[in-house]
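Exercise 7. Given the components listed, write out the predicted structure of the assembled complex. Treat all entries as one system.
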Amino acid sequence: MASKRPVAKARLRNSLVGLGFAAPFIVGFAVFIAYPLVASVGYSFTDFNLFQTPTNIGLANYQAMLHDDRLITSIKNTLLFAGVGVPLNIGIALVGAHLLNLPVRGQPLYRAMAYLPTIVPVVVGAYLWRWLLNPQYGFVDHLLRMAHLPDPNWLLEPGWARAAVIILSVWTVGGTMIVYLAGLREVPKDLYEAASLDGAGIIGKFRHITWPSLTPITLFQSIVLTIAYLQLFAQPYLLAQSRLNESTAGPGDSMLSYSMYLFQSAFVNLKMGYASAMAWVLFLFTMLLTFALLGSARKWVHYVNG
Amino acid sequence: MRFTLFRPSTAAKYAVVAASAALVVTTAGCSSGGESAGQGPNGKTEVTFSYLWTGPEAQALEKVIASFNASQSQVEVKGVSNPDMQKQLASMSSAKGSFDISDGFGNQVGSWASKGVLEPLDQYISDDHVDTADFVPAAMGQMKYHNKTYALPIAVHSFELLYNKKLLADAGVTPPKTMDELASAIKKLTKVGAGGNITQLGLGNPDLPTSITTLGYAFGGDWNDPSTGKPTPDKPGNVQALDFYAKNVVQAFGADKVNRFVGGFGPYMSAQDPFQTGKVAMEIDGEWRSASITSTAPTMKWGVTQIPVADPSLAGSTQLTTSTLFIPANSQHKAAAAKFLAYMVGKDGMLPFTRALGNLPARTSMLDNPIYNDLQNFKPFLDSLKSDKVHALSSAPGGSQYATDLASAIDSVNRGKASAQQALSNLATKTAKYGQ
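Answer.
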């Protein structure tokens, strides 16, 4: 019994030591992340303009969201970006990973090239694409005209402007591609050999071996990409940016994403309470969608060890 | 034998030191943004002037600051260039601001004043003998909220019709004075090539909402109720202005064709600017083009004329915007900042500053000052401020939302998706709900 007290004391001391070393993070997290997060819940029930004391207005911000035309436009745009962008990203990454897995000369160079757009800063990428999509001098329309295809007014017509946002987002597909490539290289070769002996073709091997093996990665990528698309900000913001640093939302608000409108509500219209309510609705929707994706995993995700 | 990096007692001491350091770092981080400068090393009151200008404009401003400091025995101004408006707002929302005086735009004044961010200046204006009657009336109108003055204009901007002399001469067009003449000039100066593609635009628009709001005044419209400041987007003159643009530009040459041509324009005010490269024959723009065209297209032959009007009684109609100086309510040195503000809007501050930037002075007594004589085509802009038809958009709260919605309505007409009447009537329905 007597020996327990020093042990308990040592444990306490160890805990204190641990806490002490973790203190820079804990204090920083509490002050700069946890507190603003919790405070934003409270602000979402207030009329708060950043400068004056918030006044409690109950659920009015949430009710106002139901009748806000621009918010509804931003939700439609964001769902479209996510609905098209996520499957497109995964599809291109999957095909690209297979191509990058082929035993050809110079493959490391091709892999590096595929990954390159991911390390280009988004501002640089956006301005590059603004020039590429220029309807008069842009390389994209030039190629389309050479192929006798319609050359759209990118960034000036709502439909094509939305397409441009998705193109700019999918441009950085290299990151997803490399993760898939790593997954492909982990698939045991003996499975393919056994399938070949059983007479399986390319499609059969993909359907019964490759795809099931990659489903955990696909689940992870679906969740990560969905969250990224629901929070899409920089790409439409930069593509829609007009002169003198004024930010518009493209023709007919076609590039207005949910996060862009949240930013405008908070820092242009100074409606911090409304913006906080918007942020929490986005958070809850993202969480629900993530749980739904995780819940669906039992039906289509194949784990080798379970 | 058990390896330990520290003995427990030593480790506990380090842990306490680490925790304390974390707290110090954290709290220091909190305070660094909120503390305002106080007494300077020479006993003068130190005033921090955070401004949005950068580059050559900031250099011009620093010269004025230096001349103020040289003239002072009690106040020392420290200039800080900070073009980040979000940081400016964040600083003003804290108990102790990081600056004592800053700059902004006239259309923000009422909105910010209503939120208690700006210090009322009336007492300082009286103490420092600033003659507000000398300021351009439309500019002062933007500075007030509920009969109190919350900012003063350091420079103003007016809009006139800029034209390319060679393109007009080639087409046999004289600078238009009336809306009919403008319509005719647009038709003659817009050139269409193979496949209906536009190769030269009669009337270009560096900023379409500004062009339309300016034309609105020239049609006898007004975008705000003069007494309440509330939005009045569907006033007949406003609808006529947007309809004029829709009929004479969008419908006349096709929304798709116009937008495709505009989409290919080089950056504004660069060497590839469409007005400077002859892609655009006329455009509605501000006085700052004088300095910029001289710098990027010195050989260009261009002229300036008043905005054409729908009726002779409207001659001289134009729109004015303002660059302002204000003292935030959380400034720690308001009286000292007000002394500097009075200097800036006085002859010694405003004249060299506006001349260096190629902007218009906000005071009528400076409009004929010879300091501006060497700026090309600057006089028509200076003269425009003498008119009683100078208008400014209201700075009443909700102005930013109105500007966004107005730009959206104009955009729908520019894309051929709505008529002027439809777009502005819908907007009027929307603006009627502001603040509800």
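Discussion: Residues 4-43 of chain A form the longest helix (40 residues). The interface with chain B takes residues 10, 13-14, 16-21, 23-24, 26-28, 31, 49-52, 69, 134-137, 153-157, 243-244, 248, 251-253, 264, 267-270 of chain A (CB under 8 Å).
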